[in-house]
């Protein structure tokens, strides 16, 4: 069990990450100053620099966390392709409904994908994330066995995964929005009987 000092240090780090996440999505990367983050985290800039040496390093850490959150190994879940997508949908929706910070992470990741002014290390991490493309073979497999509807696998993957982005953004803006059920999103892929 970590001692009190270790717990306090980890809590401060989480406070900085939460403040940075909130400010980056509200103000953008370029307009967010390290002083703003320190103020929102209720600490001095000197203490903040003890945890992150720069705004760039803080942003890169948030992008790293976001990228780790998008790592779904659908093929390793087991079962049929549709069962793999259902398990992923349930996990994502559970995370969205149970952790308000996760919705903000969806917003940050979308903004980062479309921002040329972010640090190169963040761009490099983002270039490795493409769940839409990685899902195409699994969709094609599901089409072959007759459980996923026919159609362009890339378009189906896009429709499925982008629906989570829209849901997360809506809940980030309006926290009282109810979270949809996984089956509703699975219906995007599921072959009609």
From TrEMBL:
Keywords of the record: DNA-binding
DNA-binding region(s) from the entry: 33-52
Keyword Ribosomal protein on entry: no
Entry keyword annotation includes DNA-binding: yes
Matching PROSITE patterns: HTH_TETR_2 (PS50977)
Pfam families: TetR_N (PF00440)
GO molecular function term, any single one: DNA binding
UniProt cross-references to InterPro entries, sorted A to Z: Homeodomain-like_sf (IPR009057), HTH-type_Tx_Regulator (IPR050624), HTH_TetR (IPR001647), Tet_transcr_reg_TetR-rel_C_sf (IPR036271)
Domain of life: Bacteria
Domain HTH tetR-type positions: 10-70
UniProt-listed SUPFAM superfamilies: Homeodomain-like, Tetracyclin repressor-like, C-terminal domain
Protein name per UniProt: HTH tetR-type domain-containing protein
Organism listed in the record: Paenibacillus azoreducens
